């Protein structure tokens, strides 16, 4: 028995073989993911929300540091502060948008903070004990990158259950961090609205409303 | 016909319904992803590599900016420079590892740069025209976070085809960027080895070799 076989045998599992049918469905998952800003009001089963976090926890992390820190935001006063934070940042963004685009910007719905039944803030612990510093000496930014990957894993896991996620970044991160009273030093990564989507689309909302269109991948690959 | 139905109908598609069987396989995909450092030498079909980039291109991005920039690194001289970069950074990391852990560190295989048939560098364009600045005024770091999510999408897509990916971050990012001669201003996100894995494991390499163990998710969720 090879070392590899022995280790997997100890874990009690044989490696999966993914087939064409699975891969086609996985591509559907990626294509239909969407950044959701329009939610139905009903809450998601708490066991399912826990499951999403458990799956996010399987994301890659530098040095196996698992630096992501998730915070469910439920308290009405805190949600009110988050909404006010978004509204101020969004008003400032609108004021700084070029005149030819301001009319479109003003019409975009950029967050589902009012309707989404669940709010999830994501932080990273910048220098966690876990991982013993491995892999992040020259690139400490791999810690927040790991957290971003966990957000993506959670997003796909949720979509697989028909649950939508919307990423809110039009926020003052320092004020957001203060208002959530998290341990000192945590780095704010993003704020996510979670709930069942009011509608499902294969085309991104920003594309449907004329802000930007998605480009094919050919433009983004070089060879060296 | 609702607005939502009309738009999807125009796109010619009905929303997918994912079932328990798909979700179980998707969980397998996340659980068996792995950071691969031991590769078989055979090359991956170029059409498949293109497909991985096309799927990465479906990742979430701030303001639909798609700021990820992929660079396949093939030239022997450039690969040699990348290897030398890694070796210098790794030697320095070892020299700075606490004496009680240095023996384990020295034994870890932290990159598959010699064996991996394909090398993929990932950059982000920090202030791309695409997206018209939307969503990144207060949090410009959402641009590299978008690129990290694209790396995760590519990683999962590859694993679905039995192809392994290994993230190398023990590098001097400035020297790496110079040696790949990319457009000025691009931000280096990570370097990825790509190829068929020599073995498949459900347990991370760093855990199997005693560096760190993966923790359950309960520790990482707060309520506010």
Write a structural description.
The structure is a homodimer of 224-residue chains. Chain A is of the alpha+beta class and 224 residues long. Chain A has one domain (36-212): NADH Oxidase (3-Layer(aba) Sandwich), CATH 3.40.109.10. Helix content of chain A is 41%, strand content 13%. Chain A has helices at 3-11, 20-31, 46-56, 76-95, 99-107, 142-160, 173-180, 205-208; strands at residues 68-72, 118-124, 164-168, 187-195, 221-223. A four-stranded antiparallel beta sheet of chain A has the order 1-2-4-3, with helices on both faces. In chain A, α3 packs across α6. Chain A starts with a helix and ends with a strand. In chain A, 46% of the residues are buried. The model of chain A is unreliable at 1-6 (pLDDT under 50). Chains A and B meet through α1, α2, α3, β1 and α4 of A and α1, α2, α3, β1 and α4 of B. β5 (221-223) of chain A pairs parallel with β1 (68-72) of chain B, so a sheet runs across the interface.
């Amino acid at each position: 028995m090879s070392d590899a076989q022995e280790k997997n045998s100890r874990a009690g599992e044989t490696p999966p073989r993914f087939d064409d049918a699975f891969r086609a469905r996985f591509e559907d998952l990626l294509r239909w993911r969407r950044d959701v800003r329009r939610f139905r009001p009903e809450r998601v089963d708490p066991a399912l929300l826990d499951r999403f976090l458990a799956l996010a926890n399987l994301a890659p992390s530098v040095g196996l540091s698992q630096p992501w820190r998730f915070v469910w935001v439920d308290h009405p006063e805190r949600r009110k502060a988050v909404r006010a934070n978004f509204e101020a940042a969004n008003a400032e963004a609108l004021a700084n948008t070029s005149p030819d685009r301001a009319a479109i910007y003003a019409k975009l719905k950029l967050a589902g903070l009012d309707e989404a039944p669940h709010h999830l803030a994501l932080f990273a612990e910048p220098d966690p004990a876990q991982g013993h510093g491995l892999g992040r000496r020259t690139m400490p930014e791999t810690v927040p990158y790991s957290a971003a990957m966990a957000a993506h894993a959670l997003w796909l896991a949720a979509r697989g259950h028909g649950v939508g996620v919307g990423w809110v970044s039009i926020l003052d991160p320092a004020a957001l961090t203060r208002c959530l009273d998290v341990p000192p030093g945590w780095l704010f990564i993003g704020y996510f609205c979670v709930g069942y989507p009011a509608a499902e689309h294969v085309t991104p909302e920003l594309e449907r409303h004329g802000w930007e269109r998605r480009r094919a991948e050919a433009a983004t690959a070089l060879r060296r």
